[in-house]
Amino acid sequence: MHIRLEKFNHVKRQKRYHVLRVTQTLFGDWCLEREWGQIDGNGGHKERRYLSGLFEAQTEVERLKALDLEKGYAVIPVQMGLL
């Protein structure tokens, strides 16, 4: 699962992004990876959380997505690269 959200507010000069990914580790645990920051900005923030199950990871992604949507973010379709 991979979700990208972006927020543009020209009045406040905000260009922000938030990426949520759920992946499975080699040991069978589930990892929620978050990345957020300013678009065209230096750096950004990254965080990883290891969860016990897929359902728990999906629930947390939906919770974070709902919070971002309330803050004015919009879901951006993720484009897959060529193989």
Automatic annotation (TrEMBL):
It comes from Shimia thalassica. It comes from the Bacteria. Pfam families: WGR. Residues 1-74 form the WGR domain. This is WGR domain-containing protein. SUPFAM superfamilies: WGR domain-like (SSF142921).
